[in-house]
Automatic annotation (TrEMBL):
<dbReference type="InterPro" id="IPR012340">
    <property type="entry name" value="NA-bd_OB-fold"/>
</dbReference>
<dbReference type="GO" id="GO:0000175">
    <property type="term" value="F:3'-5'-RNA exonuclease activity"/>
</dbReference>
<feature type="domain" description="RNB">
    <location>
        <begin position="2"/>
        <end position="310"/>
    </location>
</feature>
<protein>
    <submittedName>
        <fullName>Ribonuclease R</fullName>
    </submittedName>
</protein>
<dbReference type="InterPro" id="IPR001900">
    <property type="entry name" value="RNase_II/R"/>
</dbReference>
<dbReference type="GO" id="GO:0000932">
    <property type="term" value="C:P-body"/>
</dbReference>
<dbReference type="GO" id="GO:0006402">
    <property type="term" value="P:mRNA catabolic process"/>
</dbReference>
<dbReference type="InterPro" id="IPR050180">
    <property type="entry name" value="RNR_Ribonuclease"/>
</dbReference>
<dbReference type="Pfam" id="PF00773">
    <property type="entry name" value="RNB"/>
</dbReference>
<dbReference type="GO" id="GO:0003723">
    <property type="term" value="F:RNA binding"/>
</dbReference>
């Protein structure tokens, strides 16, 4: 390159069928350093669609109505007219005016400086995701150095986001990844490579810095806000669970987690004020890198360009709010229509397959729908129970379907349910998963181990040898169902047998759980004080099970923005020996942390009261 001006260079990385190219990236080592260990100079160029669409004109009015470009298998319905798309798109054979984001980032992924404003692209290249991935690993490719550095940058930014707690995950082998809302999506085959990760991380970095700049300038734009449901759990814990399941290759667990994450992730929304982005774990975010195909990006670009040129915003606060409301309502209506369409199509297909009676030939996903339909209807067509039994014997039957038949199967499934009961008795470690499915069905969503599943596990000193007793209670909708206590030589087996007993109870099947043989200890004193090694929350539950505390209850409150939530837990009850009310509060970034903090204090109060009670019982009258 005779004249190398990195600020005007860019690589457009898109799907093979892309016609509306609206972003390009470039990267070089920061300053005079030899490589990425010194940091990065990064440029993201965004097509100046605002130059080609007059605010309030016919093209703008139609774009506002459509909200975004719609991609279909057989056609694309563009948000903007074809001549505008062609004029606004970045092309490698002509200079293009852009809106440029220039970032200086250190080796740890921290942004040292960000500059935003009009830019220009004078030399550029187009590549597919796969071509970019190949070039990043091929030293002979003319763009290898740039793309290898781009991949290094993407990996650095991804690691920084994950370290901050973002629910960020890519499994290019299976094709699963998380989107910005924390939902698991399946990538197209053309995106299952490192080229896709390069694009995603560059755009996330650009959008985050544009939003941060707007906040610093006190400039209202269309911010992108997102929050998870309060019961979702900590994103870092969800990501850890996702990593573990991906490493194990457990398809059934993966699908269950995918469904759970979909249920607890709310849709992100647009608005002129900032509420944080929980899925990305960013305090502020926007969409600004796709103005040719997303209307909010076009609106935001107009505001940014006006600000960069020293002009007032082309939108009043009321107009910006109205635009955000319109876009949010439009996207919500699309989601509901899409869900209903697929629901009706799946229902019709399931009903048709019910009549075929050739269940063995059905792929598992279709078989699962037919089985669920039959269980809900309360009767099964001839052959379905036999094929379900065949899949059970072949270890093909997954947890969701096993639990549905076991818990709710009607008379047509009764012999199979009894077989399942015997299978579960041989493999009691599966019983807790069955209880989890039961709770999910009752709650219509995810299960909280703090509020919906109550375990009491403690040593049994009244018997010789090590022996532990376990009970489990499920709490939902003002209802509590509890297992009998089961005694085993270790805590794990005691839990499994208690869960097995409760699962059979819920299914209306014989209880095949068991207790370990144990001999009572002669004159064994009744133990009240819990061992110091037991964690505080479990210790408090044990005191309640031993009758030291009556009416133990836990209440939770949450404050703060979605990305910086603070939970408050209050635990309280009555000391049986004195009738004294005991209570404690704890705070933390998760429910579990808050409960642990409250339990720590409550345990001290309980044990102090217990000690006073014992002392009093020995005092002379």
């Amino acid at each position: 390159m005779a004249e190398h001006n990195p600020a005007e260079h860019g690589i457009m990385i898109d799907a093979p069928t892309t016609a509306d190219r609206d972003d390009a990236v470039w990267i070089e080592p920061l300053g005079d350093g030899p490589g990425p260990e010194t940091g990065f100079d990064v440029w993201i160029h965004i097509a100046r669609a605002a130059d080609h669409v007059r605010t309030g004109g016919p093209a703008d009015t139609e774009a506002r109505r459509r909200v975004h470009t719609r991609y279909r298998a057989d056609h694309t319905k563009h948000m903007l007219p074809a001549p505008v798309v062609e004029a606004a798109s970045l092309t490698p054979d002509r200079p293009c005016d852009t809106f440029a984001v220039h970032l200086r980032i250190d080796a740890a992924g921290r942004v040292l400086d960000a500059e935003l404003g009009p830019g220009r692209l004078t030399r550029s290249w187009t590549m597919t995701h796969a071509e970019a991935a190949t070039a990043s690993g091929d030293p002979a490719h003319p763009l290898h150095d740039t793309l290898a550095l781009a991949l290094r940058f993407a990996q650095t930014m991804l690691a920084a986001r994950r370290n901050a707690g973002a629910l960020a995950f890519y499994d290019l082998l299976s094709g699963f990844a998380t989107n910005e809302e924390g939902q698991i999506v399946r990538l197209d085959s053309a995106e299952r490579n490192s080229g896709y990760i390069i694009v995603q991380e560059f755009m996330i970095a650009a959008n985050a810095q544009i939003a941060a700049w707007a906040v610093r300038e006190d400039l209202p734009i269309l911010f992108r806000n997102h929050r998870l449901a309060a019961v979702a759990g900590d994103p870092a814990e969800l990501r850890g669970e996702l990593d573990d399941i991906a490493a194990s290759g457990d398809g059934a667990a993966f699908e269950m987690l995918r469904t759970r994450m979909k249920m607890v992730s709310r849709a992100a929304t647009y608005g002129p004020t900032v509420h944080g982005h929980h899925g990305l774990q960013l305090p502020v975010y926007t969409h600004a890198t796709s103005p040719i195909r997303r209307y909010p990006d076009l609106v935001t670009q107009r505001i940014l360009l006006a600000a960069a040129l020293g002009h007032p915003s082309p939108y009043s606060p009321e107009e910006l709010t109205a635009t955000a409301d319109h876009v949010n309502e439009h996207l919500d209506a699309e989601r509901r229509a899409k869900a209903e369409f697929f629901k009706q199509r799946a229902h019709a297909e399931t009903a048709r397959q019910m009549e075929t009676a050739d269940f063995a030939s059905l792929p598992y996903k279709q078989f699962a729908r037919v089985l669920q339909f039959a269980v809900e209807r309360g009767e099964a067509p001839a052959g379905l129970a036999d094929d379900t039994a065949r899949r059970l014997d072949a270890r093909e039957l997954q947890l969701r379907e096993f639990a549905s038949v076991y818990l709710y199967g009607g008379a047509d499934f009764q012999p199979l349910r009894e077989r399942m009961n015997r299978r579960l008795a041989r493999e009691p470690q599966q019983a807790q998963s069955v209880l989890n499915v039961y709770l999910q069905d009752r709650l219509g969503g995810p299960v909280s181990n703090e509020t919906n599943v109550r375990w009491t596990v403690e040593a049994e000193p009244a018997y010789e040898g090590p022996l532990f007793g376990a009970q489990v209670a499920l709490v939902f909708d003002e209802t509590r169902v509890e297992s009998p206590k089961r005694l085993q030589r270790n805590k794990k087996d005691a839990r499994n047998q208690a869960a097995l007993a409760l699962a059979a109870q819920l299914a209306g099947l014989p209880d095949l759980s068991s207790d370990a043989a144990a001999k009572p200890r002669a004159d064994a004193p009744r133990k009240l004080l819990v061992d110091a090694a037991v964690n505080p929350a479990e210790a408090v539950q044990i005191y309640a099970a031993r009758g030291v505390v009556d009416g133990l209850s836990w209440d939770f409150e949450v404050d703060g923005p979605s990305h910086e939530r603070v939970f408050t837990c209050r635990g309280e009850g009555l000391l049986r020996s004195t009738g004294e009310h005991v209570a404690a509060e704890g705070r933390g970034p998760t429910k579990q942390a808050a409960k642990t903090a409250a339990s720590l204090e409550l345990r001290v109060v309980i044990e102090a009261g217990l000690a006073l009670g014992e002392t009093g019982s020995r005092s002379p009258a």
